[in-house]
Design goal:
Layout: E1 2-7, E2 10-13, E3 18-26, E4 33-39, E5 46-52, E6 58-60, E7 68-73, E8 78-83, E9 92-99, E10 107-108, E11 112-117
Parallel strand pairs: 2-11
Antiparallel strand pairs: 1-3, 3-8, 4-5, 4-9, 5-6, 7-8, 9-10, 9-11
Length: 118
């Protein structure tokens, strides 16, 4: 099992940038991929971005492509989400997730709130 702790959320204005951090601990040696998801107010959780731990290959949701960047620091067992040109519709609780098998997102963080004011 992997423990995940997110940080970096807060209140920002439209157009601002923000970086979220997710620190992983526990069985990180078998990490396959890590990702970010978000749950906007009153909506279902949705995929934002993911990164393959070994190769660094990334995939993004269309809604954040070209604005958000996911990256990882293997030595620190940390994944980041750099969010630029934030929009009010990016307001959500952001969750970090880990997958050690390639089959499912098994481990989740507690979430960090990002609120974008217009």
């Amino acid at each position: 099992q992997v423990q995940l702790v997110e940080s970096g959320g807060g209140l920002v204005q439209a157009g601002d940038s923000r970086r979220l951090t997710c620190a992983a601990s526990g069985r990180t040696f078998s990490m396959y991929r890590m990702g970010w998801f978000r749950r906007p107010p009153g909506q279902e959780r949705e995929f934002v971005a993911r990164i393959i731990w070994s190769s660094g290959r990334t995939i993004y949701a269309d809604s954040v492509k070209d604005r958000f960047t996911i990256s990882r620091d293997i030595a620190k067992n940390t994944v980041y989400l750099q969010m630029n040109s934030l929009k009010p519709e990016d307001t959500a609780t952001y969750y970090c997730a880990a997958d050690q098998s390639g089959a499912s997102w098994r481990d989740w963080g507690q979430g960090t709130q990002v609120t974008v004011s217009s």
